[in-house]
Design goal:
Elements (H helix, E strand, L loop, with lengths): L24 H24 L3 H13 L4 H8 L3 H13 L3 E5 L7 E5 L1 H21 L5 H18 L4
Antiparallel strand pairs: 1-2
Helix pairs in contact: 1-5, 2-5, 3-4
């Protein structure tokens, strides 16, 4: 078995070098995202039975208020099936409500119930504590630089339009 050398030539973007997955920035970003997401999701999955899409839906609605499933999908980059399944699960648990959308009768609005708001207020500080633990070894400048770089990469990768 070959020993992995993550990031040895990370981001070199030299088309002359042979492709190495372990040096491919999108791959490294994906792996890091999965590892960090798994650490955060451990906060709410065991204690509250929430899956990651359900937590994201709760958090978006807590921050932004009532939204259509389409708007939630656009905000979170989750596909409509994932949003729909997460919403149905949260509605069944009494954490979300679904109401008609007066602005567009073809859609509906999702919003938090008081139980959903209470759960968000309980889980959010726990998620922030995990984030603090993960990034504790980063200086404030490094955290800000990471955020800025991630936003730039997201903007550069977004489809035109």
């Amino acid at each position: 078995m070959t020993k992995r050398r993550y990031g040895v030539n990370c981001g070199s973007m030299q088309n002359t070098a042979p492709f190495r997955l372990d040096d491919f920035l999108p791959y490294l970003l994906s792996v890091a995202t999965n590892v960090v997401s798994d650490a955060v999701s451990a906060t709410y999955s065991t204690s509250h039975g929430l899956k990651t899409p359900e937590w994201r839906l709760l958090a978006v609605l807590a921050e932004d208020g009532a939204m259509t499933p389409l708007a939630i999908g656009q905000r979170t980059r989750m596909d409509k099936v994932t949003v729909s399944r997460a919403a149905m699960s949260l509605i069944e648990r009494g954490l979300l409500r679904r109401t008609p959308n007066a602005a567009d009768q073809r859609s509906h609005l999702l919003s938090l119930t008081p139980s959903g708001e209470a759960l968000y207020k309980e889980v959010a500080p726990q998620a922030l504590a995990v984030e603090a633990r993960i990034f504790d070894g980063f200086t404030p400048e490094e955290r800000q630089a990471l955020c800025s770089l991630l936003m730039r990469a997201q903007k550069a990768a977004a489809p035109e339009g």
